[in-house]
Amino acid sequence: MSQYSQSVTTMQTSADNEWMAQAIAQAQRAAAAGEVPVGAVVVRDGVLLGAGCNGPIGHNDPTAHAEIEALRAAARAVGNYRLPGTTLYVTIEPCTMCIGAIMHARVERVVFGAREPRAGAVVSAARLLDADYFNHRATFTEGVLAAECGELLTTFFRARRELRNARD
Predict the structure, then answer these.
(1) Rounded CA gap, 17 and 23, in Å?
(2) 49 φ, ψ to 5°?
(3) Which residues pair with 53 in a beta bridge?
(4) Please, which pLDDT band fits residue 166 given cuts at 50, 70 and 90?
(5) Which of 7, 95, 140, 147 has the fewest CB atoms within 10 Å, measured from its CB?
(6) What is the three-state SS of 4-59?
(7) Full DSSP string of 88-103
(8) Which residues are catalytic?
């Protein structure tokens, strides 16, 4: 069996747009703070358990990705580092570090907006949710509000380049 033949995706649910909109709001908070605009929320049974936005610069913490921040908040809210039955909504495809945290937290489903072609670890640069060495499986749905999620990043990096070019 191929390493990638186990890929399991799920169909978009009616609530996915609503929760992704909340992740987008978190991404906008990150952008306002000068961080790369990525936001995430953790939901179980229609209840928001945790939210987070990118914060590596402000927190001086390379692990302060939106997904990690949302998982930490959710774990504190439920009093357990394991989060079975949860869905993580994130504006961009998670990286390798975040997939590791997702698997350790036992997140059931990952929903992301835009792909991250260079470092995305769900479908782009790697397919870690398919890796057979994890003892947990998570499903995923991609492309929820993808245009909006992608535009946040495009606008942020365009402004950053313009500022850098104006200084040169």
Answers:
(1) 10
(2) -100, -30
(3) 39
(4) confident
(5) 147
(6) CCCCCECCCCCCHHHHHHHHHHHHHHHHHCCCCCCEEEEEECCEEEEEEECCHHHH
(7) EEEEE---HHHHHHHH
(8) 67
The pair of structure tokens assigned to 68 is 């990690």
List phi, psi (to 5°) of 51: -140, 155
Residue pair 68/101 in contact by the 8 Å Cβ criterion = yes
Q: Beta-carbon neighbour count of residue 79 at 10 Å?
A: 6
pTM exceeding the 0.90 threshold for the entire prediction: yes
Cα end-to-end distance, the chain, whole Å:
53
Query: Tokens for 89?
Result: 């909504």
Chain-centre distance of CA 108, in angstroms? Answer: 14
In 3D space, the residue among 138, 11, 52 whose CA is nearest the CA of residue 87 turns out to be: 138
Unique residue bearing structure tokens 């961080």 = 35
Contact 50, 71 (CB under 8 A): yes
Structure-block tokens of residue 29: 């908070």
Taking the CB of residue 36, how many other CB atoms lie within 10 A of it?
Answer: 20
- Specify the 3-state DSSP secondary structure of 114: strand
